[in-house]
Amino acid sequence: MVVRSRERVLLAVAGHDPSYVFEQGRGCGAGVDADREAAGHFGVACVTVVTAWTEQAEGRVEALGAVSPAIWLSEAVRYVRELGDTLGALKFGLLPGEAAVRAASQLVREARRLSPRLPVVVDPVLAASGGEPLLDAAGRTALIEDLMCQGLVLTPNRPEAYDLTGLPRSTRPEDLARALFRRMAGRDESARGLVLKGGHGGEDPVCDLCLAADGQLVESTHARRLGASLHGSGCRHASAVAANLALGQPLAEAAAQAGAWLGALLARA
Fold it and tell me: What is the extent of the structural domain holding 78?
């Protein structure tokens, strides 16, 4: 790991997508490579730790090989200690099971012990784009009861938010966001935040909702790109939010920057 002095660094803990490709200035695919792409776009270095190796074909996850949580946790803790005050943010993507979620909570506690105000972003990957489940019931319980209470920024799409709250699909996005935000109350309410991503409904323009620690709801909109799709859009969005937080931006601005960048990528997809 080579990091220039005073450079802000994002530590991304997520799965690996072997289908990721990057050409002509843009990438397609998910996982740690998409995290690295997003951070690089905003001028933030990215160090990655792999939680699972996946086999993917035609946008579907064919197989999932989880890395032992003890192994990747040890690697991540070492990076946290080596990076010191250059570590600008911590981001989690795919956490394949309850043990992985518990390990993520342990990593947050260790990172916050060294840097109490460190931004932590969690993209709650419950299922793959093709619908394949990636986090079982025990893992979801650990996510809700342990990790979500660590004072972090959660970046779910609307289907994920419905699953995490148990609310009916007819619930208004504003009410859904506030209900999930309340569930995140825990050890450090001053650091918690929520970015509820639009795009999975039929709204045009697409509307992302941001709730920061003060509870103020901020809307961020961008045009719907009809027919456009991008495998790994959730990974990129969460890492873009994390990269901007690492640069010291407030959550609403970080979310707006992430949404605008993702919209531009979809326009070219």
Answer: 9-268
